[in-house]
Amino acid sequence: MDQGTRLQDFSAGFADTLRQAMHDVGFEWLSFGLMEYIGEAGKQRGEQRVLYNTNSPAGWEERYLEQRHFEIDPRIALQGDCGLPLAWDMPYLRERVGNSPGDPRVETFLADLARFNLHSGIVWGAPLRHQMTPRSTWIVFCSLSSSRPDRAWMNDTVMGGAMRIIVRACTHLEEARDSAQRNKEIATRASLPAHVLRRVIDFVEANVTQPISVRDMAEIADLSVHHFARSFKEASGRTPHQYVTERRLQLASRLLTETRMSILEIATAVGFESASHFAVVFRRRQGLSPNDFRRQRVAFSHVAASLAESG
């Protein structure tokens, strides 16, 4: 996906719901989208790409992408330091970046915030539940902004409402991405007809926690193993083994987030032979160990829940 390419637009009803919720809490603008970091986790990442779908001041999205502000946006770096939502205003940002020599790109970014009347807000970002490629990490990024000059107005009620909006926007964005990806796979016409591909995918979905061989999948498609393996990759862009592994990791991500099962229990439940093998594959795919992924997701869930209760 190229920089600036959009996911399918959210439905008008969902967009209206978010807009109303945003105004009820006191924010004026909402930006949300996907950010991709290319390279191995823990190493210097190279090219970054942003996939944005926004409800923001006219011209802000274009300016943000054109100037590649996502490469130096101090809000992203500051939020990443703690892994929790960041409440910011202009004085706070200037204070946090003021100890280092002036970076002209940062100064341009801060000037653009002021130019577009973005003076305070809340930012949150976290890895997608379902990563698309093993060589990059996709981050869900959500920002609520206001023209108010400081962040003092953001009390517990405001923070709780903001977190509910962020969770809904990020969840919807992930689901839209996943749906678009599945639709692309099913619509792809190669030597494997779409209805056969759909039948195989349904079989994998129903048996993802059980041992699944390429022969099993080939029998569902009524093809030889060799013919099926070649056709499946042409139709889906992945080998049968890669697809099954991806679905198991997606299920594992949900179990890490929503249950207290041990890493060994989760590895066994989603079809891996050992916890160590699961951990290696999970880290390669998600850029985090299973334990680190769980800590980040659980920490965010607890903060969102507590803020919602206080609101």
UniProtKB/TrEMBL annotation:
<dbReference type="InterPro" id="IPR020449">
    <property type="entry name" value="Tscrpt_reg_AraC-type_HTH"/>
</dbReference>
<dbReference type="Pfam" id="PF12833">
    <property type="entry name" value="HTH_18"/>
</dbReference>
<dbReference type="InterPro" id="IPR009057">
    <property type="entry name" value="Homeodomain-like_sf"/>
</dbReference>
<dbReference type="InterPro" id="IPR050204">
    <property type="entry name" value="AraC_XylS_family_regulators"/>
</dbReference>
<dbReference type="GO" id="GO:0003700">
    <property type="term" value="F:DNA-binding transcription factor activity"/>
</dbReference>
<dbReference type="GO" id="GO:0043565">
    <property type="term" value="F:sequence-specific DNA binding"/>
</dbReference>
<keyword id="KW-0238">DNA-binding</keyword>
<dbReference type="Pfam" id="PF03472">
    <property type="entry name" value="Autoind_bind"/>
</dbReference>
<dbReference type="InterPro" id="IPR018060">
    <property type="entry name" value="HTH_AraC"/>
</dbReference>
<keyword id="KW-0804">Transcription</keyword>
<protein>
    <recommendedName>
        <fullName>HTH araC/xylS-type domain-containing protein</fullName>
    </recommendedName>
</protein>
<dbReference type="InterPro" id="IPR005143">
    <property type="entry name" value="TF_LuxR_autoind-bd_dom"/>
</dbReference>
<dbReference type="InterPro" id="IPR036693">
    <property type="entry name" value="TF_LuxR_autoind-bd_dom_sf"/>
</dbReference>
<dbReference type="InterPro" id="IPR018062">
    <property type="entry name" value="HTH_AraC-typ_CS"/>
</dbReference>
<feature type="domain" description="HTH araC/xylS-type">
    <location>
        <begin position="198"/>
        <end position="296"/>
    </location>
</feature>
<keyword id="KW-0805">Transcription regulation</keyword>
